Amino acid sequence: MRGLVASARLASTAACALALSACANNWQRPALNVASPTRWEDTRADKPVWPKSDWWRGFGSSELSTLIVQAEQANQDIGAAKARIEQADAQVRINGASLVPLIQGGGEGSVQKSPGTRTVGGLQTTLNASYELDFWGKNHATVRSAQATALSSRFAEEVVALGVVTDVANTYFALMSAQERLAIARDNVKSAQTILDAINGRVEVGTASGLDRAQQQTVLDQQRATIPPIEQEIRTDQTALALLLGRPPVTLAVKGGRLASLKAPRVAPGMPAELLLRRPDVREAEANLAATDADVTAARAAFLPSIDLTAQGGFESVALKSLFASQSALYSLTAGLTQPILDPTLPGNLDNAKGTYRENLYAYRKAAIQSFVDTENALIAVRKSAEQERLQGNAVKSAREAFNIAQAQMKEGTIDIVTMLATQQTLFSTQDALVDARLARFQAYVSMFEALGGGWAASGQAPGGTPLPESAIK
User: Fold this and answer.
1) pLDDT, tens digit, for every residue of 206-263?
2) Residue 1 has pLDDT above 50, yes or no
3) Is 106 exposed, middle or buried (CB count within 10 Å of its CB: 0-12, 13-18, 19+)?
4) Contact present, 453 and 156 (Cβ < 8 Å)
5) What local confidence, expressed as pLDDT, does residue 8 receive?
6) Average pLDDT of span 54-62
7) How far apart are CA 136 and CA 339, in angstroms?
8) Are 264 and 446 in contact (CB under 8 A)?
9) 220: number of CA atoms within 13 Å, CB side?
10) Beta carbons of 242 and 251 less than 8 angstroms apart
11) What does the UniProt keyword field contain (predicted)?
12) At what angle do helices 62-74 and 76-96 cross, to 10 degrees?
């Protein structure tokens, strides 16, 4: 009876083991299903102009170039990303240790004395080695996973560094825009004061009323009130730059200038398929996908038997002078086979690895599609912001002409104050709108460079490069 029960238990256990093995093999890798478009919807370029390694120099600002170089060297987020590369490289070495034998040495000495007996001593020195045969590729899979993660950390650093550089450029342009608006606001105050002085003269001779003077005083006060928030914005942009450069704000002085003095850089995307090789976020997602695919392989291999080899050799003697004699030598060799029979964690580990792989698969697909979306948005933004700046420049020209005519007619007494106020407000608002349009155009260029993955790598290597081998993502 007991034999039947034991046989039943053995059969049940064997069935569970077979079920676990079946779970390990029941894995169908999802398809990537990411198709690159053959063209861009909004492009006018005949041939591609990919970003250069120092693409920011295309704006023609030496100060901007200096700030970006300093940010690359001292930004704290870039430093943290470099540290994560060090951690990932260390993990590769840790996982790689399973592919080589583990060797340990030891030595021991002892002295024993009991009442009525002589003192007995002993010396022993040994060398131990152990190694797991990687028949099923589990250890190699964990190494591949760590290697892919280390590659991912490098692309992650590029993502961080590219974000820092674009933040520096955008913040610097915003600072220049605020400086330009501040100069316009101060000029507007002078113009409003000049008109108020003229109205005061007309009030004295009875050709203007106190209401006219009060209305113009309101315009003057409004223009003065626009100055403090612009000055605050300038200071906030300066402190933001200091943070990006890893410096206290008090140590950073930024000259700035006029946006109109900047150059429009040349940049145009090539084929969409090429973009996937240049975008560090896409390459990072691809590497993460390869890492989790290797994790699935390792989780499947955990269902299968593991074979461990151990060896020990050394010398043992009661006297040091005879410790390394041939008759004192000792050694042993053993081999062990371990087969998981009933481990409830194995199916869960495998399902978790599969789920993580699928999650990274969708992340990879989204990163690829996002790169196409970002480029299309940047293309239309560059073109339309340039068109808006041109049209807004025409509006400023017309508004200034109307303001000059109205100012001359007011001096002659042939225009009413309401018309004068309207021409003032129109000129002031169109000038501000022109600066905003100019800022939008240069920030659209920055977005284009970012959408194209920049033109450099934080690691000092060429951007993009060859994609991961097919074996890494299959």
Assistant:
1) 888 899 899 999 999 999 999 999 999 999 999 999 999 999 999 999 999 999 999 9
2) no
3) exposed
4) no
5) 45
6) 94
7) 13
8) no
9) 15
10) yes
11) Lipoprotein, Membrane, Palmitate, Signal, Transmembrane, Transmembrane beta strand
12) 40
CA distances from 130 to 31, 335, 345 (A): 40, 10, 26
Q: Which of 60-74, 78-92, 126-140, 256-270 has the lowest mean pLDDT?
A: 126-140
Q: Is the overall model pTM greater than 0.90, yes or no?
A: no
Q: Is 186 exposed, middle or buried (0-12, 13-18, 19+ CB in 10 A)?
A: middle
Q: Are 236 and 252 in contact (CB under 8 A)?
A: no
Helix axes 138-205, 227-244, angle to 10 degrees: 160
Helix (H) or strand (E) holding 128: strand 120-133
CB 399 within 8 A of CB 424: no
Residue identified by tokens 């003229």 is: 198
Higher pLDDT, 13 or 367: 367
Helices 138-205, 210-225: inter-axial angle, 10-degree rounding: 160
CA–CA separation, 385 and 365 (whole Å): 30
CA distances (Å), 65 to each of 14, 159, 382, 384, in order?
69, 19, 21, 26
Token pair, residue 416, equals: 């009413």
The encoded tokens of residue 260 equal 């109109």
Residue 110 banded pLDDT, cuts 50, 70, 90: low
The domain spans of the chain are 15-74+136-304+345-472
Mapping DSSP to helix (H, G, I), strand (E, B) and coil, where does residue 200 land?
Answer: helix
Under the banding of pLDDT at 50, 70 and 90, the label for residue 444 is: very high
Pairwise CA distance, residues 207 & 408, whole Å: 16
Average pLDDT along the chain: 82
Q: Per-residue pLDDT tens for 145-172?
A: 999 999 999 999 999 999 999 999 999 9
Assigned CATH class of 15-74+136-304+345-472: mainly alpha
